[in-house]
Amino acid sequence: MKKLGLLLIACFSFTLVSVAQNNIVKSLERNVPGQGKVSIHQDARIEALIGSEYIPTGSEDQKVIKSSGYRVQVYAGNNTRQAKNEAYSVASDIKERFPDLPVYTSFNPPRWLCRAGDFRSIEEADAMMRQLRATGVFKEVSIVKDQINIPL
């Protein structure tokens, strides 16, 4: 019974904290008659980081935040022209089958790599890895920890 009570209190506290974080900027920017008005001028990326809803406008569509996350490695070759061509070939094949999935081909000495996706959790990366394997085309599929791009 005590454990159930503690669990309910913890869940309620977590809910209050998450609601407070989502509205902290808006709650500070209020106009109280007789007390003045608080205006907060900040970069939109800060709001995105604290969980507020942020809708990008036209020129900001290409801006990203770098973060630690996961990608699915689809190809790893050696330091040859053939490996480079294969890495780009795998990348174009992924883009053909999964048009919304970002694909990154790079040379990380001494090998050419082709990685796909920007996943915040290993579960998301695992789901995509399974989809890539299910095609039967990509055989060297694995999940790697990498720096990812989170679009604003």
TrEMBL record:
<dbReference type="GO" id="GO:0042834">
    <property type="term" value="F:peptidoglycan binding"/>
</dbReference>
<protein>
    <recommendedName>
        <fullName>SPOR domain-containing protein</fullName>
    </recommendedName>
</protein>
<dbReference type="Pfam" id="PF05036">
    <property type="entry name" value="SPOR"/>
</dbReference>
<dbReference type="InterPro" id="IPR036680">
    <property type="entry name" value="SPOR-like_sf"/>
</dbReference>
<dbReference type="InterPro" id="IPR007730">
    <property type="entry name" value="SPOR-like_dom"/>
</dbReference>
<feature type="domain" description="SPOR">
    <location>
        <begin position="64"/>
        <end position="146"/>
    </location>
</feature>
<keyword id="KW-0732">Signal</keyword>
<feature type="signal peptide">
    <location>
        <begin position="1"/>
        <end position="20"/>
    </location>
</feature>
